[in-house]
Amino acid sequence: MGKVINIQPITRIEGHASIHIQLNDQGDVQATKVAFKSLRGFEKFVQGKPAEELPRIVSRICGICPWMHHIAANKAVDACFNVVVPPAGDLLRELMLTIAHIEDKLLHFFFLAGADFFLGPDYDYSVRNIMGLVKANPELAAKVIKMRHKAKMVLDKFSQKTIHPVVGVPGGFAKPLSIEDRKIFLDNVTELLDFALFAMEYAKKEVFPKFEASYPGLGEITTGFIGTVDHKGALNLYDGNVRLMKSDGTYKEFCPDAYLDHLAEKVVPFSYGKFPYAQSWGEGFSMDLDAPKGIYRSNTLARINVADHIATPRAQAELEEFRDQYGRIAQSTLLYHYARLIEEVYTCERAIEILKDPRIISPKIRARVEPCAGRGVGCVEAPRGTLIHDYSTDENGLITRVNLIVGTTHNLAPINMSVDRAARDLIKNGVYDESILNKIEMAVRAYDP
Amino acid sequence: MPIKLAGESLNACSGCEISVLDLGEKLLNLLEFVSIVHLPLFMDSKHVRSENGQHTVKLPKADVGLISGSIKTQEHLELACAMRDSCDLIVAFGTCATHGGIPALANSYHNDDLLGYCFNTMGTDKADRFPSDGVPAMMNACHAIDEHIRVDVCLPGCPPHPDHIFRTLQSIEKKESFSLPEKSVCDNCPASRDGKGKVKVLKRAFELPKWQVDDNTKKGFECFLEQGFLCMGPVTRDGCGGDTQKARCIMAQVPCRGCYGPVKKGGNQRLGMLNALASNGIDISSLPETVSMLRFSGGHGLLRPLPRIKESE
């Protein structure tokens, strides 16, 4: 048996993961594993806790996307307790989630993954990062830092806490939006939209055209996709039906609380993360690169593949341009970054729409809640995919059972496959270097910083 | 010369590291006196292991090391020890590192209960065994890092406020002393209190609090505890608002849940809170459960599984 190459940890991602590449005696790739290396046990340790406390506990699953866990948890508790949230409470939740997406995409594209594109995968590892970008392109870096901070701080100023937020409450939202705060939001988000459009143009000129030349087929696999759409089939990050699409474009659409009819999870021996697959396709589970079974992907590219259209004009124009170039079911892994910037435009436009909705400044933000026995599924689109929180409560409103499928989890099998693909393409006869190993990691960063 | 900074995230969510980025444009000031030599979320610095398979991770030498997250696996322990070896000063960075944090809620359960539940949820295909090929072994409980290594500076918070991150690093660089607030959240709470102790039982957090300013007295909103809501402010260290903000959760119109940990080192938030409630004549049996009072500070042996009752022969 040949050598094992370990890349640990995978860097510039959230979470604790490593890559293990088994070479054969000829030095070619025999098998690849991406392992997720810790299990905190949220599903178990929230049992017996009052359901209304969960939005403030489960946010700690992820410090990069805590808003999505916070809001999915609130939706799940509402459903357990049969509460109808007043329109202003609902809009405020969607506004927070949408602005959190704006910030996250800037973080992902520019701060974490961006160094690979702006500086290059061959750049010295010690400065191939946001600090290196500050030195190499201070003007762009300063702008990016300022814009990300603007998105984060507009949330922070209003909601007080953006890492592990607290303002979503069962029944609605804790704090009304004043006319003054609404204006501050609008001014800031309008500026963020300008930056999103600038980033899109910049990347279309400087980044995306280089993908095919510099990283041909990097981590490319053929899979199905999952994402949320509204009743007209448009991209929706906050609410709607889940669409599970095969690679041929056919799909099933379902209400999130029916997710168990379509998805199942596989325990694998080498990772604490479980691997979901589409059990309703009836083909089982296989990560074979040439004949995958049950494999679908989530996150940005998945969402813009499954959506028929985007309901805001600038993002729709970008989507049409993207589809003219890459088709409706785009499979190239690095195109996740392109889709990310299309969503950046959408989220800015959508945040402006929400802020212009006159209902948002209503003081009626929170409905009265009575605890009861029930089951509720809260589903939103997190940056890294369809986020499902499924809770059951007893008659006192205490948690009896929890099942979670988080965004990244959907992509665990695809990440393994993309890394396997990249490793097989790039490592031949036992020859590899730091730059090649970083390119293999880039297949992960397309999905998941 | 800028000080060299290393960082490792153990049983954690990366929120503490994102709080560094939340310095915003001040991050550029920070980078004038801090040179980051190792921090996996931001840069491509790997764990270098020697071939002998012993306690072997080598990390770059640094003046100061930020460790976020608690210790739950053998790999976390190995990394914490490697950081201790390579850094002159160790900062326990965030409440998971200082007190166990939210992941230490798992300490109420044995590992086989955690694994047995998480790998058998609805929709999970039945597996022959739990993951064990190359994944780090779990320890019996989730520990604060000072349960294993010497810690020089404690910077609690879930996450720590960016103001405090900046000032801590600045004071280390300038070799000046700097203390975080040492009072309770109540000392920095804008609520009004009349201290009359009218409340006899506690309400659940889904009930609607009063928040309006009283038009007659012009008094601000009434203390959550005096409204009958559990608020962990009295037993929680202040600091969440940084240099300029008041208690953050209170300002978001929800009660404190204790994320900066106990006011004093070694404090027990659950015990302190139950004492405070009982001494004010509040019926503590009106609480649905009390484990959540230790949701941020269940390390140091404060949360443990219930003993297993052996089946009689």
Outline of the structure:
Chain A is an alpha+beta fold. Helices cover 42% and strands 16% of the residues of chain A.
Strand order of the largest sheet of chain A: 8-7-6-11
Strand content of chain B: 5-15%
Give the helices and strands of chain A as they follow along the chain.
EEEHHHHHEEHHEEEEEEHHHEEEHHH
Order of helices and strands of chain B: EHHEEEEEHEHHEEHHH
Question: How many helices of chain B in DSSP terms?
Answer: 8
In total, the number of domains of chain B comes to: 2
Task: Name the helicity range of chain B.
Answer: 10-25%
Report Rg of chain B.
22 Å
Low-confidence stretches of chain A: none
Provide the CATH topology of the largest domain in chain B.
Rossmann fold
Major sheet: arrangement of strands of chain B: 2-1-5-7-9
Distance between the termini of chain A: 33 Å
CATH-level-2 architecture of the domain at 85-220 and 332-368 in chain A: Orthogonal Bundle
